[in-house]
Amino acid sequence: MEDGEQEDQPEGVEQQLTSSSSPSEAVVGTEVSGPLPINHRAHQELLRRVAQNLGLPAEETVEQEDPLVDILSPKSPSSIALPLIKTIQSNYKTVWQTPASSAPTAKGVEHKYFAPSKGCEFLFCHPSPCSLVVSAVNERQRYGQQAPAPKAKEAKRLDLFGRKVYSSGGLQLRIVNQQAIFNRHNFNSWAVMGKFKDSLPQGSQQEFTALVDEGKGVAKTSLQASLDSADTAARTVPSGVVMRRSAWLQESGLPPEVQNTLQDLPFEGSGLFSDQTDARLHSLKDSRAMLKSLGMHTPATQRKPFKPEPPPQRQSQPHHRHESYRRRGRDNRRWHNNNNNNAPGQNQGQRKPQPGTKPGF
Predict the structure, then answer these.
(1) Whole-Å CA distances, 145 to 107, 148, 199, 275
(2) What are the Basic residues biased-composition ranges (predicted)?
(3) pLDDT band for position 220 (50/70/90)?
(4) Which residues fall within 8 angstroms of residue 223, CB to CB, at 6 or more apart?
(5) Are 204 and 154 members of one domain?
(6) Is 168 within 8 Å of 104 (Cβ atoms)?
(7) What is d(CA 300, CA 313) in angstroms, rounded to the nearest whole number?
(8) Among candidate residues 276, 284, 298, the one with its CA nearest the CA of residue 255
């Protein structure tokens, strides 16, 4: 639609402030994978009014377009750039004084934003090292002792940096989640205000409606900003995971192409490496020879003890041999008993008299 056609149509306050997505879609966010699109023109108009209300020196920036292809799309409105407030400027200037030793989050901030621990365990603890990669590095560097980080200095430093990035991303997710909830609550509050319109004088109803629509528009824009921040935070968390994976993979000695494959496997939230890591290593061509040459052996907890099976022909031999020993023992005892009974002067007084005879005196 051309600009002239847009100007001919009457635009109310609601049409200017409403995003291209409905509020319910913005809250649920299950049908899209990224931030929801917004009405760019309405968004810029809202920023201009906010800057005027707060007395902020807003700047208009116009993107330079190729003059040869500008006829293919309508001219886009200029973008409003709002200045950073003094509190934010003071904050990042202070943190940037010690970039290497600064903590990933400010003290006390984490206690302001909470989330249920069930189902969101990854927000409160770092993923534990796992897989054959970690076992191989620990066996090589620490002689089989398990450790939470590689022993090498550079790898250990990279692992620590990855932990900082991970903690920062987790806190951002908790903050923007609370912001999104507050912004939707703000929108609902403005929507409820509409029922008081009929209670006002006729001359004030139009102004009251414009005020309510402005509040609803600000709530929608703030909700969209929360979703944009959530998308950024969601990308920050796996960045920290990849850093820690790289620290272990660099010490494993695996080929670079294998390291890149293992780094890009999904992150499930509990273990540092994906559950598919070990299976992917064993599925590689000549995986057994490669793992053996790198010193990567299956841990004892995952390997069944070796039990050699005896040859089939020897299974029945111990039984017959023991039976022959028992038979020979019975024959020997029987032979000794017979000899004792036949010896002269032995057991004569114990013989029973034959029937019909009298014992001699």
Answers:
(1) 34, 10, 75, 22
(2) 317-336
(3) very high
(4) 23, 26, 27, 180, 183, 184, 187
(5) yes
(6) yes
(7) 32
(8) 284
Task: Please tell me whether residues 287 and 153 are part of one structural domain.
Answer: yes
Tokens coding 122? 């990854």
Q: Residue 71 belongs to what domain range?
A: 11-23+32-85
d(CA 107, CA 138): 33
Cα–Cα dist 187/223, whole Å? 9
Nearest to 219 by CA among 243, 247, 251, 187: 187
- Distance between CA atoms of residues 297 and 132, nearest Å: 8
Residue with tokens 């000899």: 339
Look at residues 209, 214, 184 and name the one whose alpha carbon lies nearest to residue 196.
Answer: 209
CB atoms within 10 A of CB 19: 19
Contact 226, 176 (CB under 8 A): yes
Domain boundary among 248, 273, 301: 301
Report the 10 Å Cβ neighbour count for 220. 27
The pLDDT of residue 72 is above 80: no
Question: Which residues, other chains included, contact 80 with Cβ-Cβ below 8 Å and sequence gap of 6+?
Answer: 44, 47, 48, 51, 58, 59, 60, 61
Beta bridge partners of 128: 271
Residues 78 and 65 sit within 8 Å (Cβ to Cβ): no
Rounded to whole angstroms, the Cα distance separating 282 from 297 reads: 11
The 3-state DSSP class for residue 183 equals helix
Mean of pLDDT over the chain: 77
Torsion on CA atoms 15, 21, 24, 29, rounded to nearest 10: -160
Tell me what the mean pLDDT of segment 317-326 comes to.
58
